[in-house]
Structures are given as C-alpha cells and as structure tokens.
Amino acid sequence: MTGQPLVARVVAALEEARIPYAVIGAAALAAHGVARSTFDLDLFTVSTTPLEDAFWSGLAADGTVRLEVRRGDADDPLLGLVRVEADGQRTVDVVVGRCAWQADVVARATRVKVAGTLQPVVTASDLVLLKLYAGGSQDSWDIEQLLAGPDRPALAAAVDAGVEALPVEARQAWQRLRTKT
C-alpha cells in the first residue's frame, strides 16, 4: 500500500469505510474546464469519521504519512479539515462540511478521471454553491471562470435552484456575481 500515491491511499481509506466523498477545489474546476494550478487535492465529505484520529491509524502506521486534524469551532463554516501529507506527494485535504445541503452535493457527484483514477467530482453548479458558501475572493474568481463557459445559462439556472439553501451573504454574493458576468 505504501507504493501507491497518497491520494489513492486516502481514497481507499474513505471507500473502505464507505464514507461518501467528492472532489472539490482546483481539481473539480479542471474537470469542469477551468484551469487553476494547486499542489493539493481537496476531497469533501459530511461524515465526521475522518475527524477521528483513529480513522487514520492504518494510513499513518508506516510513518511516511503526516496527518493534521483541524476541528472547526461553532462559528466555522466547516466541521473540520484533515491535511494528509507525504514527502514528494500531492497533499490531500479532506474537508468536512457541516450542513445538510452539502450531503446532497456529495450525492450528486459524478465520476470523472482525476489524478489518474475515476473519482466522484461535484457538479459545476454544486461547486459554485460550495464556493459561494466559502465566500473568499479566490472563490469568487473561480465562480466567474465557471460562468464564463458555454454552459452559463444552464449553470446559472442550476445555481438559482439551489442557492436558497445558503446563508443570506452567499445568496447576495450570487446575485452580484450573476449580474456581473
């Protein structure tokens, strides 16, 4: 198992535990036609199991993997994040969401080739919803890039259908972005 790429090992741990997950971040953007370079791979779940240190014991047993479990506080939009690192390998972040609508995002993911294997990747509209929820300046840029594509009308309609589940600040950001592009 240690000969496998780190991402394959993390995915295997999630799948063995039957934890639903989906690719988000720059890799999901790339799957939807937007190129943005990062060294990490972001996986998203609403399962709290990855936040338990014991979940990662098998992966960390050989001593080549470094783990950092960060739990969000009550004001954090996330329950937490697990950073998984190994020398010379692409870092994997397992992002743990806290909202019921985010489970639907994971359930709607479709399998796309990412990092050499088929992985569930969030839909373009769900990626926009997640980025609206995150609310950062990079997230806004990413949304603008997605909206610049040829499927803009269908994408905007799909986001319109899901945006009511988001906090008011995210809905307001969507209105600004929708009229801007």
Rg of Cα set: 16 Å
What's the β-strand tally? 7
Residue-averaged pLDDT, rounded? Answer: 93
Order of helices and strands: HEHEHEEEHEEHHHH
Write out the strand line-up for the largest beta sheet, numbering strands in chain order: 1-2-5-4-3
Shape: globular
The structural domain count equals 2
Strand content: 15-25%
What is the CATH top level name of the largest domain? Alpha Beta
Task: Specify the CATH architecture of the largest domain.
Answer: 2-Layer Sandwich
Distance between termini? 46 Å
Count of alpha/pi helices: 8
**Major sheet description:** 5 strands, mixed
Secondary structure elements and pairings:
Elements: H1 6-16, E1 22-24, H2 25-31, E2 41-45, H3 57-60, E3 66-71, E4 78-85, E5 92-97, H4 100-108, E6 110-114, E7 117-121, H5 124-134, H6 137-147, H7 152-162, H8 168-180
Parallel strand pairs: 2-5
Antiparallel strand pairs: 1-2, 3-4, 4-5, 6-7
Helix pairs in contact: 5-6, 5-7, 5-8
Walk me through the structure:
Helix 5 packs across helix 7 and helix 5 crosses helix 8. By secondary structure, this protein is of the alpha+beta class. The radius of gyration is 16 Å and the shape is globular. It is built from 8 helices and 7 strands. The strands form 2 sheets. It has a 5-stranded mixed β-sheet with strand order 1-2-5-4-3. The longest helix is centred in the C-terminal third of the chain and has 13 residues. The model has no long low-confidence stretch (mean pLDDT 93). It folds into 2 domains: 122 residues, Beta Polymerase, domain 2, CATH 3.30.460; 59 residues, no CATH class.
